[in-house]
Design a protein that fits this description.
Rossmann fold, globular, binds adenosine-5'-triphosphate, binds magnesium ion
Length: 213
C-alpha cells in the first residue's frame, strides 16, 4: 500500500442470496469496486438508493465479508452506521462511557471528548436523557459522536447527516474540516449532489463499481 494511503480496497465483489428453493434469489451488489482513501482526505461515496453504498462500507469496516477482493487498512477506524445502533434504556452519557471503555480510553479523556462533541453538535442538554426519549436527529448526533469519540485516523460515515437540521448540518461540516485539517481521513456516504464542493474527491457507485468523478 502506498505511503499516504490509509485505506485501499480492490476489486470487491458481493452477492446477497436470500430465500429458499424454489424462491431463491441472488442480487449481485458489488462487481469489482475499488476505494482509496489517503491521509487528510474527505472523500464522498454517492449512488442511488440500493446501489450498494452501505454494503460497500460494511465490507470496508469488516462488519460484512465480501465474496472477493481485498481491503487493506492502516490504523484504527471509526464507523457511523446508517441505522443508529443504540441502547434505548441508556443515557447519552452512559453511551459515551460504554463506548469509551470499549475503545480502551481513559475515563478522563472520555469526559473531555464527550463534552467537545456535545458542544460541537449542540446536544448537551440531552446528556442525562435516555435514548428512548430522543428525537431522530438527536439519536443521529449520538450515533455520529460515538464514531468520533476516540478521534480515529479513519472515519467511515454512512449518511451521517440524514436527520440533521440546517444548523447541525453546518456544524457537522465544520467538525469534518477540523478533523481533516488534523490529518484524519473521512469517507462519507451522501445523497446530495449539492455537497460536491465539500469533498476532495467523489466516487459514484454505479452497476456495482465505483467511478471516480
Ligand atoms: N442483508 C441483505 N440481504 C439481502 N439483500 C440485501 C441485504 N442488504 C442489502 N441488500 C440489497 O442490496 C442492495 C444494496 O443495498 P445497500 O443497503 O448497500 O444500498 P445503499 O446504496 O446503501 O442504499 P440506500 O441509499 O437506500 O441506503 C439492495 O438491493 C438491497 O436490497
Ligand atoms: Mg445505505
Amino acid at each position: 500500500m502506498g505511503e499516504a494511503l490509509l485505506l485501499r480496497a480492490t476489486a470487491l465483489r458481493k452477492t446477497y442470496r436470500t430465500g429458499i428453493w424454489p424462491r431463491r434469489r441472488a442480487v449481485q451488489v458489488l462487481r469489482g469496486a475499488d476505494v482509496r482513501l489517503g491521509a487528510g482526505e474527505v472523500v464522498g461515496l454517492v449512488g442511488e438508493n440500493g446501489s450498494g453504498k452501505s454494503t460497500l462500507m460494511q465490507i470496508l469496516v469488516g462488519a460484512l465479508d465480501s465474496d472477493g477482493g481485498s481491503v487493506d487498512r492502516r490504523g484504527a477506524l471509526g464507523y457511523c452506521p446508517q441505522a443508529p445502533i443504540l441502547y434505548e434504556r441508556l443515557t447519552c452519557d452512559e453511551h459515551f462511557e460504554l463506548f469509551g471503555e470499549a475503545y480502551g480510553m481513559d475515563a478522563g479523556d472520555v469526559v473531555g471528548a464527550r463534552q467537545d462533541l456535545y458542544d460541537l453538535l449542540g446536544f448537551d442538554r440531552w446528556a442525562d436523557a435516555r435514548v428512548e426519549a430522543l428525537s431522530g436527529g438527536t439519536k443521529a448526533k449520538l450515533n455520529l459522536s460515538l464514531a468520533l469519540l476516540p478521534d480515529p485516523p479513519i472515519l467511515l460515515l454512512d449518511e451521517p447527516y440524514a436527520g440533521f437540521d440546517w444548523d447541525t448540518f453546518q456544524r457537522f461540516w465544520a467538525l469534518t474540516r477540523a478533523r481533516r485539517d488534523a490529518g484524519r481521513s473521512l469517507l462519507i456516504i451522501s445523497h446530495f449532489i449539492t455537497d460536491e464542493e465539500r469533498f476532495d474527491r467523489i466516487y459514484d457507485l454505479r452497476d456495482g463499481v465505483t467511478v471516480a468523478r
